[in-house]
Design brief:
Layout lengths: L11 H12 L2 H4 L5 E4 L5 H14 L17 H15 L13 E4 L14
Antiparallel strand pairs: 1-2
Helix pairs in contact: 3-4
Keywords: Signal
GO cellular component, one term: plasmodesma
Protein name: X8 domain-containing protein
């Protein structure tokens, strides 16, 4: 009978914990402010789905005509604002800015003109 090889692998819970700790953004660990924005490479269908989902969960009235974030009136801008509202309202966890890998957590305030990206 052959000798049994000892397992040198971490247990599954320990591996999960290690991966979770490694995936926490450095900015969050350093206490920096963070925002969620759409990746520029995201396609129109994904951005539309993100916008619709986020606005079904949070108040997106800031995107209405006449409000501070209506302009520029384009999909990536509106999706970014809605995604950030969702991200902020859910506690700024990196997983709340995933949106099927179509978003980025940034440390530079994306606010512009009269449009202030919310930071809670």
């Amino acid at each position: 009978m052959a000798p049994r090889a000892e397992s040198t692998f971490l247990s599954l819970p320990a591996l999960y914990l290690a991966l979770l700790l490694l995936s926490v953004p450095l900015a969050r660990a350093q206490g920096q402010k963070t925002w969620c924005v759409a990746k520029p490479s995201s396609d129109e269908a994904t951005l539309t789905a993100n916008l619709n989902y986020a606005c079904s969960q949070v108040d997106c009235s800031i995107l209405q005509r006449g409000c501070g974030c209506f302009y520029p009136d384009n999909l990536i801008s509106h999706a970014s604002i809605a995604m950030n509202l969702y991200y902020q309202s859910r506690g700024r966890n990196y997983w709340n800015c995933y949106f099927k890998n179509s978003a980025l957590v940034v440390t530079t305030d994306p606010s512009f003109g009269n449009c202030v990206y919310e930071y809670i």
